């Protein structure tokens, strides 16, 4: 295994071990019996402040439908998260199991942050600091920097040639090699957005001597476990990944910025010009 990926593997293995802590964090907060419209405490944490109105609704549904019902409820102050299970006994009674999962969710959040940081450092190291994995806040800055040169949307294959035409017209003073690189990378990014997310939007921005291409979609994103392969391994592709087009973009662009998740993927590509771009006032 290449040395530069060993730290990443260690981080992933450590994350798997740390998952065992979730079991310790998951404790039954309260066990109650529901009968005749009333709850009776049986065991667990007696002083646990459950959202009783929501709990009663859940129990009524479970008894009425004669089947187990489950609902995740957030406390009124937003500080606690409960996993409620309603189990019917007969036509008028049942049992309520309430799990306080606040700590579990917090541990999962921290583990995800640690995992993403490991990927960020490993991918940045492998690419010589040219590919950055970014969070949502960081990506918002990337998307808003500079002045807008052109923008468009792609929802059908015939929209891609139109995007190429628009970007060429927006960059008339660039040398032919740079125009070709930008057009090619835009085509690859839009093809991926169309293939994996059904389409998306794009824009070109200029900040000083740098032209930035941004492509955004609302697809399923790239799974964390596939990030390294999807971005670094040539010809690697899954239903949700960018495939071999990403290595091509990494070859032509000077810097890449990637933010991806279940709500979509945002990609920024920087092309640093050797000649200062003239701004059309």
Automatic annotation (TrEMBL):
It holds the Pfam family HATPase_c_2. It comes from Carboxydothermus pertinax. This is Anti-sigma regulatory factor. It comes from the Bacteria. Residues 157-267 form the Histidine kinase/HSP90-like ATPase domain. Signal peptide: none annotated.
């Amino acid at each position: 295994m290449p040395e530069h990926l060993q730290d990443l593997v260690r981080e992933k293995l450590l994350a798997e071990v740390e998952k065992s802590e979730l079991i310790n964090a998951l404790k039954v907060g309260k066990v109650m019996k529901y009968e005749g419209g009333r709850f009776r405490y049986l065991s667990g944490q007696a002083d646990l402040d459950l959202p009783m109105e929501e709990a009663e609704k859940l129990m009524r549904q479970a008894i009425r439908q004669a089947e187990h019902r489950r609902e995740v409820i957030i406390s009124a102050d937003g500080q606690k998260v409960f996993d409620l299970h309603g189990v019917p006994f007969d036509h008028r009674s049942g049992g309520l199991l309430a799990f306080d999962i606040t700590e579990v969710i917090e541990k999962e959040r921290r583990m995800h942050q640690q995992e993403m940081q490991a990927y960020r450092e490993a991918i940045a190291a492998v690419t010589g600091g040219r590919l950055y994995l970014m969070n949502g806040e960081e990506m918002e800055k990337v998307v808003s920097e500079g002045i807008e040169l052109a923008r468009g949307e792609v929802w059908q294959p015939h929209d891609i040639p139109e995007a190429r035409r628009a970007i060429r017209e927006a960059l008339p003073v660039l040398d032919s090699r740079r125009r070709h690189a930008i057009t090619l990378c835009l085509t690859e990014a839009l093809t991926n957005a169309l293939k994996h997310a059904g389409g998306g939007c794009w824009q070109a921005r200029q900040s000083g001597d740098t032209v930035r291409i941004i492509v955004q979609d609302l697809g399923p994103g790239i799974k964390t476990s596939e990030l390294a392969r999807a971005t670094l391994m040539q010809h690697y592709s899954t239903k949700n990944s960018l495939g071999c087009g990403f290595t091509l973009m990494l070859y032509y662009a000077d810097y890449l910025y990637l933010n991806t998740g279940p709500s979509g993927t945002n990609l920024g590509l920087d092309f640093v010009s050797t000649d200062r771009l003239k701004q059309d006032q």
